Amino acid sequence: MISIALWLALAIPAEEPARICYSKSFPGSQPPYVAICVDESGRGEYREQDDDDPLVFQMSGTEAREIFALAAKLDHFRRPLEARTKVAFTGHKTFRYERGAARHEVKFNFSADPDARALWDWFERITESAQLLQRLERTARYDRLGVNQALLELEMAWDRKRLVAPRQFVPVLERIVAGQAYMHIARERAARLLEALRAGDSTGP
Question: What's the predicted TM-score (pTM) here?
Answer without folding.
Answer: 0.88
